[in-house]
Protein 1
Amino acid sequence: MDTLAIFGLQLVLSLIVYTLMAKWYVAPWLAEKPIHLALIALIFPHAFRHIGLAFLVSGLVAQPLPSSFAFPAAYGDLVSGLLALLSLLALRRGWGLALPLVWLFNIVGTADLLNALRQADAVPHLGTTWYIPTFVVPLLLVTHVMIFARLLRRER
């Protein structure tokens, strides 16, 4: 099996596992919670998105990643992580701008992940950062979808 096929299989299987966990355990538990508590729980994993800066560390990647992937992925993750932290603070403190911040974070964060995932040419160069898109990104995608669902449910 070639590198891209292994990558794709790992990504899809992780996405399936996280989706099942979310559907069977997390979503039913969060459905009973007020929106701000549910959103806090869903946003917390995104507060670790600073880990994406690893794409800029040459010792962690097999060779320097294509800059068309490395810089947008690393800084997109950093910005998304900072927006997640700001959203957490706003939700926790009950700021009036909390939900607009969550919308902003969720749109920016989702766009960042989708942009990174479309750049398959970077896969062979990921080195030890391989776990980020195959293990962490599926969790982030599932929680982004859950955040959108909760926000849209509130709008109705």
Protein 2
Amino acid sequence: MERNEIFEVVQQALVDAIGVDEDEVVGEATLLGDLGAESLDLLDVLFRIERKLGFKVTINDITLMITGGIPDEEFGTEEGYLSDVGLAQLKKSLPQIDVDSLRKFEAERVLTLFTVDNLVSLVEIRKGEMASVTH
């Protein structure tokens, strides 16, 4: 399955779960910001992707992709903002972001930075993991 086919599955899941138009679902659109998804919508999107592709992608997978497994107390500062460690991880996990603009960004809001392209990449990774398990 090619990336553009995965994009189409993700796009359709977003259209069906959130009720946005197909042309709104572009790679750089953030799920929780630009597309207006809420937490429950995100669960619905992931469930639809699972039904279509036959493997699970979870909120935990998204969080792990974003944070790289860095503990909350290291990812954010005591004041609740992204730490240097958190910013360095975001530079790797969400390469589209200008991390310098996030110096005073609240660590707990990091999921709002997750885009359609990020979700497509995560689905690609999970698909690859599933393929290696079955072979």
Protein 3
Amino acid sequence: MSRKGRRLMLIGIALAVVACAAGLTLFALRGSVSLFMTPTEVAERPLSAGARLRIGGLVKEGSVIKPDAKTITFAVTDTNKDVAVTYTGIVPDLFREGQGVVVEGVIEAPSRLRADSVLAKHDENYMPREVADSLKKQGVWQGAEPSSKSSPARP
């Protein structure tokens, strides 16, 4: 076999190995590609205790209970199903009832999660000042003026 033939065979084998590795990686990650699950998806899936996942939704109105200074319990809802969450730590400043959250933690029981992180999301009206300015220049801005607190001023 010539040098050119050996080189082509080596390149072909390397490409086959890379393709197999990529295929196996995508196959392994097929169930966890989404950023978070909704409470309805959690209720529909058979999850065992100890499974780690992220749940996103709204903090259910009237569900926030603070038994002590560090622990908080609340329900995350998608208006269809609820998941009870227990979190020990300091919640973000934007955390409140009716606000969007993403919680990450471990399933303790069906529809019960022990969270180790809570992320509060901005509402849908949030718009960084730079984006709002760009939309105004294009003539497509339809919202209210962005507050000066939404984005720090650039020097």
Protein 4
Amino acid sequence: MVDDALWQRTAREALPGLYKLAISMLRQEADAQDAVQNALMKSWAARSRVQPEACRVYLTRIVINECRNIQRARMRTVPVEDFPDVPAPEREDLTDVAEAIAALPEKLRLPLLLKYLQGFSEQEGARALRVPVTTFRSRLHRARTTLRERLRAEWMEDEPAAEYGKEAGRK
């Protein structure tokens, strides 16, 4: 059972990471805010049923579920054909790494975000995603490998081949 003070402290500490997680899943600020707010309300209502050591994982799990609910709701709303043909605004603040992470499939992106953004242990991340620890580790490894390959390919496109060979000590 989580008391009010522990829940408030845990929620306050986890809030920036929860918001970043929601943004990474939904890619829209308003939806991310809604997901986090709904998750906080639901976890507050259920705080008496949560074990203190699982509070942070529980909050994260609810945010993930809320994001998925919003994604499902999006699929049931207005078809894309009804929108005017307006190009999406450019996001200059995204780096190559952030773009590469965002391009990962959700199954690979979530373990990466939980481990490195939220600071979850492998056991906590596995519980949050409701998968075995070995599956979490495998997805984390595949995410890092995929990310490394994408970034290497992108960065090598930017550099002339002759310069790359000299820097790497190749002829």
